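User: Before I run my own analysis I want an independent prediction to cross-check against. Here's the chain; please return only the C-alpha cells and, at the end, one sentence I can use as a sanity check.
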Amino acid sequence: MYFGTVHEYIKSTDCCSKFAKLVEDAGPSVIPKSSGSKTLFVPNNSAFEKLTDKDLSSIEENPEKLVSSLLYLGDLCTAGMFHISELKTAEGTWSLSLGQENELIIGEKARLVDADMVCSDGVVHIIDTVLINS
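Assistant: C-alpha cells:
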C-alpha cells in the first residue's frame, strides 16, 4: 500500500500525533527531503507518555536530534531487518534483536508496533519507545 511521502504519512496517522507535532514545530526540513530513500522509526503516542518531563523537554528543545536518532538512510523493510544486527542512523547505532515471540527489538527496548508503511520517499515503522542517542 502507498501512503504518500513519509512526512504526509506521519501527519495523517493519529497514533503518531505527538511525533508529528514535534516535526511540525521544528519545521518540515527536520525530515530530509533528499532524493534518496529513508526509513523512519516513529514513536507512537504511548511512547511519549513513558518519558519523564525532563526528557520530553529536552526532545522538544532539540527535535532534530530525535529525528536523527530514528532516521536510517535507505529503504529498510522488516524482511531486511531480520538479516542485520545493527541499525545505523544519522545519530548513532542501535542493536537489532528478536524478542521472545520473534518480534523485532530495536535498541534493546523498542518493539515494532506497525511496520512497512511504504511511502514515495521511504518507509515508516511505528515503535513503542522513544529512542534517542545520548
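Sanity check: The CA atoms of residues 65 and 91 lie 7 Å apart.
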